Amino acid sequence: MFWFKKKKYPVFWNDYLRKFKTPQPKTVENTRFVVFDTETTGFDTLKDRILSIGAVSIFNKIINVSDSIEVYLKQEKFKAETVEIHGILKEGNLLKINENEAIEQFINYLGNAVLVAHHAAFDIEMINNALKRLNLPKLKNKCIDTGILYKKLEGKKESHFSLDVLCAEFNIPKHDRHTASGDAFITALLFLKIISKLKKERTVHYSDLFRTGNNKGLI
Asked: Which of 172, 178, 124, 130 is nearest to 148 (CA)?
């Protein structure tokens, strides 16, 4: 007979898992959304690393800037050629913390909120790979991709839309573009504007936010 021991997780991860035992609200107004973005050393989700994480919450259709997080990570893997995009220097004057501490802070902040990101698959994969390096499972949160959500609008079915293009369409100022916290705030504004426009076009059910064109969940 084989005896299997239950895997031991750190306290912060057990606290995170417990939050999902509480029944989740089923309305936009009563849901805490966490809009987030990562700045990274590149676009290879396996080889590249996170340089910063920025996030802000939305509750009752209001962006709550007092409920936000921004962390910068120490990284040995660094590509000088990407500094022009994100502006983060390897040394610099920013206070930086280890990856494990940054992930713990993000998970504690996130809780069981619904994640929102633009082209979310990349950012989620970067977080999941960081979790894997800590011998932890993947994120459990539901997720909404604003790029996919935008395609639910009338006449927006097939194309790929960058954040810059959508900012122009919805008249969203691009302050602090290509910083994690700046892009998170811009995406939060975009999310609310898309929801508002969708509601003008038709009745929007909460469950609709989590479906792609083929009616499968986003994650």
From this structure: 124
Q: What is the pLDDT of residues 29-82, one digit of tens each?
A: 999 999 999 999 988 999 999 999 999 999 999 999 999 999 999 877 655 555
Mean predicted confidence (pLDDT) in 85-111: 80
Q: Catalogue the active-site residues.
A: 178
Q: Model-level pTM? A: 0.87
Q: What is the DSSP string of 51-118?
A: EEEEEEEEETTEEEEEEEEEEEB--SS--GGGHHHH---SSSSS--B-HHHHHHHHHHHHTTPEEEET
Q: Report the distance separating Cα 50 and Cα 123, nearest Å.
A: 9
Helices vs strands, H then E, count in the chain: 7, 5
Write the class of the CATH domain 24-210.
alpha beta
CB 41 within 8 A of CB 82: yes
